Amino acid sequence: MANNCAYEFDVIVAGGGPAGMAAAWAAAGNSRVAVLDDNPALGGQIWRKALHESGSPLAQEWRRKIYDRRIAFLAGHRIFAAPAKGLLHAEGPDGLCEIRYKKLILATGAREQFLPFPGWTLRGVTGAGGLQALVKSGLPVTNKRIVVAGSGPLLLAVAAHLRQHGAQVLAVCEQASPAQLASFSVALLSHPGKVAEGLRYRSALAGTRYKLGWWPVKAHGRNGQVHAVTMSNGHRKMEISCDLLACSFHLVPNLELPALLGCEILNHGVAVDTLQQTSIAGVYCAGESTGIGGLEKSLIEGEIAGYASSGQVAKAQALRHKRSRAIRFSSAMRRAFALRDELRNLCQPDTLVCRCEDISYERLHGHTSWRAAKLHTRCGMGPCQGRVCGPATDFLFGWQANSTRPPAVPVQVGTLAGLETNPTSTHSIE
Question: Which tens digits make up the pLDDT trace of 13-62?
């Protein structure tokens, strides 16, 4: 039987990445605040520390800010239900936790977007950010021949990190066209920090081919392991022998929890007002979950949400100009890395789209909606609950998931059984 517990705070921040950290810091000046995250440490994916490393100076600074304000951090907690206003159910290291709040800030971040193509399920084909996280956790890549492909600024960051750890990065292939990225370069001129960051990555990748307008069309395997990838620019193809293929097509917001709460969701993320409040009163959202925009946008939106949720409206309003600037950059980035139509034609009839349930493209073709595909094929009903195939089918067929039900994440049966009992301990952090 799970050991039930309960917490109560003025402001709960769901997500411990940059947006969540900034939100917690801003709110803690006026409220009792806790950050929940399923990771063991603050920082999210972008500030995940490598083994034996202390992390970036900016990440260290924000961790110190959180510590100085004595903000509670509930590590290893995953929110899976919101049964009533002001109440969350989460699974923690000790089982079920009931968490009560007055205001809630969603900073659920984003995940990589994957698109199916022949061979994408071979061993050695990973997400770009996923491979970076594995290397930070100790996976050796010294002398491994790696191709990084897909779309988005993450590709260069990952490639530079892999090379720093001894990998042979053979090529970075970006599906966006040179014309798309030329227009994005104009937007970068008003963000000198981002220009400098990009130049650092290119310097770290000196000698590595950076090919614009190229994308993967097939990964070739031997005994189930990738050994080469065929790239195309729509006119010609090239095959590159490799040990690993790190491939992802930019990012998509994590929207399961906002959808569970009933927040309005637009094409690019959760809909918010100028104070980051969602369509649900008392529920705020910040960072990548309102639209992919990078670190600066996440920190600014986090601070606004934190100030607004704790009644410090004047401080929140003072950041509106910075927020508008960050959103303009976010829009420019979305246009620059928009996925080309050719990527919709990569699948062969037997190409798996739903890896959890082994559902091929041929079995999905002909259905008219996400719901119909689920009912007839079980697409999206496996362990990932549509987190991989959902965005893929949205891109391929225009399907959108129309419902989110608890549990929003996989939980142990014992935790669900704990819902039938009363909490055995209560914690109110003053």
Answer: 999 999 999 999 999 988 999 999 999 999 998 888 765 666 788 999 99
pTM comes to 0.93
- List Cβ neighbours of 206 (8 Å cut-off, separation of 6 or more): none
Residue 239's CB is within 10 A of a number of other CB atoms, namely: 11
Q: Which domains does the chain have, with CATH numbers?
A: 5-111+253-335 (3.50.50.60), 114-249 (3.50.50.60), 342-397 (no CATH)
Q: Which two tokens stand for residue 318?
A: 């003072």
pLDDT at 429 over 50: no
pLDDT number for residue 12? 98
- Say which residues have a Cβ less than 8 Å from residue 321's Cβ, sequence separation at least 6: none
Query: Which long-range contacts (C-beta less than 8 Å, at least 24 apart) are formed by 298-301?
Result: 298/17, 298/18, 298/19, 298/22, 298/107, 299/18, 299/19, 299/22, 300/22, 300/326, 301/19, 301/22, 301/276, 301/326
Cα-Cα-Cα-Cα dihedral sign, residues 281, 282, 283, 285: positive
Q: Which pLDDT tens digit goes with each residue over 171-224?
A: 999 999 999 999 888 888 888 888 888 888 888 999 999 999 999 999 999 999
pLDDT at residue 189, rounded to an integer: 81
Does residue 235 register a pLDDT over 90? yes
- Asked if the model's pLDDT at residue 402 lies above 70, the reply is no
